Amino acid sequence: MKTAATSLAEQIRHIKEAKKFDIRSGALPTWCPGCGYFGIHQGLNACIQELGLAHHEVVTVSGIGCAGRYPFFTSNYGLHTVHGRTLPVAQGVKLANPDLTVYAVGGDGDGLAIGGGHFPHAARRNVNINYLMFDNSIYGLTKGQPSPSSPVGMKSKASPFGTLDKPLNATLMALTYGASFVARLFAGDPKGITEALIEGTQHEGFAFFHIYSTCLTFDKAYKTWAHLKQWVHPIPEDHDPADLRRAFDLVLGDDFSTGIIYRRE
Amino acid sequence: MPKVDITVEVCGMAGDGTIAAGGLVNEAMSLGGFSVLGFDSYPAEIRGFGRCVTRSRIGSNEIGALADETHILISLDDLQSRSRVPFLARDSAVLFDSKPDTLLEEEQSLAAVVEPGTALFGIPFTYLATAATGTSRGRNLAALGGFAALFGVQPEWFRRVITRKFQSKGEKVLEVNLKSFDAGFHYALEKFADRLRPSFAAANVVAGPEKVMLSGNQAIGQAALDAGLKLYFGYPITPATPIMEFLAKYLPAKGGRVVQMEDEIASVGAVLGAFYAGARAMTATSGPGFALMTELITHGVMAEIPAVILNAQRGGPSTGLPTKTEQSDLHAAVFGGPGDSSRIVIAPSNVAECYSFTVQSFQLAEKYQTPVIVLTDFYLDNRVENVVMPVASEKEKTDGNLYPDESLQGSYHRYLDTESGVSPRSLPGMEGFAYVATGLEHTERAQPDYTPEIHTKMTGKRHRKLQYALEDLPVPVEYSDGGQLDVGIIGWGSTFGSIQEAVNMARERGWKVAALKITSIFPYHEKEIRSFMTKCREILITELNYEGQLANLIGHLHRKEVVRLNQVTGVPFSPSAIFSKIEALLQAGVS
Amino acid sequence: MTARHVVIIGNGPAANEAAISLRTQAPDARITIISKEPIRYYKPHLLPDLIAGKVSEQDLYVNPLEFYKENDIRLRLGQEVVHVSFATNEVVMEHKEVVRFDGLIIATGGKPRIPEPLQVFEDLMLSLKTLSDAKVWKERLRWVDSVLIVGGDLTSLSFTKAVLSLGKKVYFILHGDSFWPVRFNEELSSEVSQRLSDRGVEVISCRKILRLVMASEDSVEVETDGRKLRVGAIGAFFGLVPDVKFLARSGLAIERGIVVDEFLRTRFEGVYAAGDCAQVYHPKLRDYWVSIGYRNARNLGRVAALNLLGGQESAETAPAGIFQLDDISVNTSWWTEF
């Protein structure tokens, strides 16, 4: 929801009085202890608080997967859909009631494999929704199969001799598809997530948040906390998110810089 | 006064103005007070050039189906029209261009192949139009002029519809068309003075309230507009695309939007999203697209989200026969998808019902919080009928949602297990009623739960709703004189028009035959269907599919095996085919 | 020759007899009958009976339409030939279609002949050649009490009988030498005149019709060199002339008919003429003759078909020479003016 500054303060006061600052619901997340997704949850929670969004005017739409369970852990309106269809449903919600703030959340399998056909069209259609892709490069809920963003050679029960397919780069794809807001983030940095989400939520148009996370239960080799912490770093301070060419250069040259990569007003 | 039941065809090449001419025939005859049912066919493959045929059945009584034979063929192209000769009735008439620009070979000539019993009326369409207006563009109108003169159609009817059609295109265009029409009219009146067949004049039909020509698809589009549609999501597919195109033209002015999605999955997904958020939305598709939608349709069933989905059936399975008609998606519509996921399925049988059922589908979806499938078919979507312009009443348009009482704020049970199975539904934006709609099995409070008790209870709740929905669904319509019957025919969709005609033919012979139209496919009105069946010695279920899908659904209600009449030719049933089956059943009963 | 596509122009007795003979003799040939009248083959000699009400229209028809289908004869009714090109063996139709033929039989029959001095009055006179002519008469006779018949030919006699049977007054102007194609001698003329008078016909003798005027909707005023009278309708009966206008620039020799030899061949190979439209050479007479009458026409049609298929039958072998009409013997099988 885009709120004028004057009414924003009023809303924050209202929400504070209603003691509904925390969007976390009573339901205990089913995520494994130590999962990166807690960090994302924390980041989004803080963003909604910062923006003072009324909880009943926020809708989280999800697909299937560990990320798909996210709506249950909030006190917002939620729409837990089927596998891969997060984006079309979220667009339907937003177009039906533009006053709502819509967060579409889903994993890398949901958004790059089964639902991969919707990603380019949501980007080019530029409906004002926010899409958070929880990218842990694995199918966690089904216990550890390779995903579209898994590295070549990843071994799992489903790929005992290592995978052959090249991984997809969701940030690069979003740029290519013409998304008007692209950020790359890290689940280990809730503060960074919150900052980017605040920007993106206020952005008029489709905002994409590519969030690296870990699956500490099934991925012991690749996107571990240790590796991610080592690889991830902020984008250069002189990066100009308005410049699409530089955004491409940045993403092509560096897989792990995080921050707001591109923004087109 | 003599009854009129005449089928007129216009046949030509793409570019001849065939479809326009056929449309004017429909409009003019409608204006004159006749019942009109029209159907156009043109090349399925996009070649830009090919045969176009319009068929119009024109009658002094109500018409339910196209007839088997054509009585008047207006040929705008000899070569193309040769293919129509086998469909001509015995005493038919053919109007053709007797002075084309170039000499024709015998192999190209229509006159070379018409049967000798057919009356040939050679009228120099091209020459007359050119002589009258300086351009041959109006040759199709000259042909209509000839038609009007020969068969006793008041030229004023044509002049009015021509004016209506062309006045927006400028004075010059209108003049060309009117003058061409007049040239053809006067030529034929004089030339064939001793051979005129004023059948239409003899019918002395009196024009009633003004009617409009509407196709099934237009009626659906108009109904959606009138019902307050906010969002249309769709993906191009024959034969549903015209609905999207109609709405793309008219919906924005009403504050709505048409969004062409990337596929049918996205289309129905967005519809669910929109209804979840409280807006009326719909999508229209055909078999292959419908198949893609099934998972999300069952999501609507499970999460109890309304949706309106129109399935314009065509020949299947798979890509099948995109431009042919069939009724083979009934199973898919009612049961398609995982789990116990039956939903509301209604099937209009004519253009008027295309309108009223579409209007009603929104309320039904809202009230019973489940997807509503409107099943039409290629033939119903594309045929035109003249109807009094339908209007939806305020009551029919009212919001069908049941909202939670404010007192429940904070203790809201989204999926409350009520007697009817319908639970109050909140919309995002309502404070204190937030919940997560989910496709997982869930408790009354919308929490995922896979326990035996919950799944048993909630499955029951979802199915109970449908039984309660029956009271709002269109009831079966019986066409009978009462009393015991030898044969009762049950049908649905566009096939019912053919059934009605066949029943009329049988009744004229004094046979005890009646028909029952089923418009609510699921849930269906068991009591009413059974009571009809009880009156009948034989039940015949007639449908355009191989498997007998309606028969499979309701056949068990009859005390003995129902008789099935199925056809998968891609074209509608001819009334005489059904009549023959009735005859056979009656004879079998006698012996 | 083995004809692949034989086109027959005309749909009378000669044409139909030709078609069925062709079909019998050449089962594989493609046969097309083209007729400008939009109705099927009927017996023209029964038209007076139709007017008299002795037969119905249905009785006139010879073959049902199925007959043509069963015999694989393409019947094209209501379609007119406007030109024949013998260089390319093509028939050109009024509706601008070209029909190719390997063999052609022209059997278009005749059309009413009006002598030149009377042509100015053509609009006021009715003839009787076709079914639609008969229908016009039938309608007219419902309203009028009297009919004047001018000229006189074979049809006029049976027509007179028909009109008399309806109780109408008949006037007759025997136009002397106009009893086409038969030249009347004095004897024959007075015999006919006497017979007509016996039946109650008022025979008017005159040399010339001076004036015909439409007096009212259903009466015409007639003024001859000796008399003035008012009648309900006037019938012109001066025999027939061959209906072959479409051959005008085709190169075929046409005199009182299409000139053919005793085998009915024209000067073009594979092209024959038969029936009322043909002018046939008679080797014994060493002269030409023109046939009239139903039986003659059928015979010629058959002969043309056989010869087209390679036969050598002479047309004169079976001329039905003498007509018996109302006890008057008329020899019709020769042409006296030649």
Automatic annotation (TrEMBL), chain A:
Pfam families: PFO_beta_C, TPP_enzyme_C. Gene3D superfamilies: 3.40.50.970. Residues 215-264 form the Pyruvate ferredoxin oxidoreductase beta subunit C-terminal domain. One of its GO terms (molecular function) is oxidoreductase activity, acting on the aldehyde or oxo group of donors, iron-sulfur protein as acceptor. One of its GO terms (biological process) is small molecule metabolic process. Keywords: Oxidoreductase. Signal peptide: none annotated. Residues 72-211 form the Thiamine pyrophosphate enzyme TPP-binding domain. PANTHER family: 2-OXOGLUTARATE OXIDOREDUCTASE SUBUNIT KORB, 2-OXOGLUTARATE OXIDOREDUCTASE SUBUNIT KORB-RELATED. This is 2-oxoacid:ferredoxin oxidoreductase subunit beta. It comes from Desulfomonile tiedjei.
UniProtKB/TrEMBL annotation, chain B:
It holds the Pfam family POR. The lineage of its organism: Bacteria, Pseudomonadati, Thermodesulfobacteriota, Desulfomonilia, Desulfomonilales. Keywords: Oxidoreductase. This is 2-oxoacid:acceptor oxidoreductase subunit alpha. Residues 14-185 form the Pyruvate/ketoisovalerate oxidoreductase catalytic domain. GO terms for molecular function: oxidoreductase activity, acting on the aldehyde or oxo group of donors. One of its GO terms (biological process) is response to oxidative stress. Residues 223-458 form the Pyruvate flavodoxin/ferredoxin oxidoreductase pyrimidine binding domain. Residues 486-559 form the Pyruvate:ferredoxin oxidoreductase core domain.
UniProtKB/TrEMBL annotation, chain C:
Keywords: FAD, Flavoprotein. Residues 5-280 form the FAD/NAD(P)-binding domain. The keyword Cell inner membrane does not apply. Its cofactor is FAD. InterPro entries: FAD-bd_OxRdtase (IPR050260), FAD/NAD-bd_sf (IPR036188), FAD/NAD-binding_dom (IPR023753). GO terms for molecular function: oxidoreductase activity. Belongs to the FAD-dependent oxidoreductase family. PANTHER family: NITRITE REDUCTASE [NAD(P)H], PYRIDINE NUCLEOTIDE-DISULFIDE OXIDOREDUCTASE DOMAIN-CONTAINING. This is FAD-dependent oxidoreductase. It comes from Desulfomonile tiedjei.
